[in-house]
Amino acid sequence: MRIDVATLFPEMCEAVLSESILGRARKNGALTVQCWNIRDYTLDKHRRVDDVPYGGGRGMVMQADPIYRCYEAVQAEAGTQPHRIYLSPKGSVLTQQRALELAAMPHLFLLCGHYEGVDQRILDTIIDEEISIGDYVLTGGELPAMVLIDTVARMLPGVLPESLCFEDESHFNGLLEYPQYTRPAVWHGQEVPPVLLTGHHKNIAEWRLAQSLEVTKTHRPDLYDCYLDKK
Question: Does some domain include residue 162?
């Protein structure tokens, strides 16, 4: 998969994308991510990419033209038209199911807004969908873009050792994950559940499912009811 990120702060994005699992995935070729500085595509000699909003109001709005020129450069280099996403609190909230669908796409273009947002005309011209990572507002789209890349990339072949690494986690099957334990077997007087020490895979699987159901019922009754309805 190829992901292109249009941003005013490429160094901020690279700091995340160069580390840990994402960094290794980029190095081994399982994932290609390129960050594009929108300021490189402005015609303003001072590299300005924003202006005051029509109609008045506080703050600045990112202009359409530098973003469009940046997108044209991405498309020219890639030779393909990506699926184009604007990270916005007005968008549909990102879910595990949507991340799975995005992971099946060969090329994503992520637009990171800033200030008071971007000129609506660029959204009307190039954006396929708007995605939010939650019902709150951040100072820019860079952190949401990194969240989206992380949740999508970890489901790509070659990023994690095997698909079980993400299939056995919260939300993938509609339930929250069961509790996890590691050595020592007793810590501060608290013992690991005995079934996990037996090596009996069937019993362990049944225990984990029962725990997932209980955790989901307690913490996310909406997900629990949805899971029961599907069953």
Answer: no
Q: CA 141, 142, 145 angle in degrees (round to 5)? A: 85
Angstrom distance (rounded) from CA 90 to CA 133: 10
What is the domain range of residue 101? 2-153
Looking at the structure, do residues 9 and 56 belong to the same domain, yes or no? yes
- H helix intervals, 51-116: 64-78, 96-103
Structure tokens given for 77: 């280099």
Task: Name residue 227's amino acid.
Answer: Y
Instruction: State the pLDDT confidence band at 174, using cuts at 50, 70 and 90.
Output: confident
Q: Are 138 and 131 in contact (CB under 8 A)?
A: no
CA distance 126 to 72: 10
User: What is the distance between the alpha carbons of residues 126 and 103, in angstroms, rounded to a whole number?
Assistant: 20
Over residues 93-140, the pLDDT tens digits come to 999 999 999 999 999 999 999 989 999 999 999 999 999 999 999 999
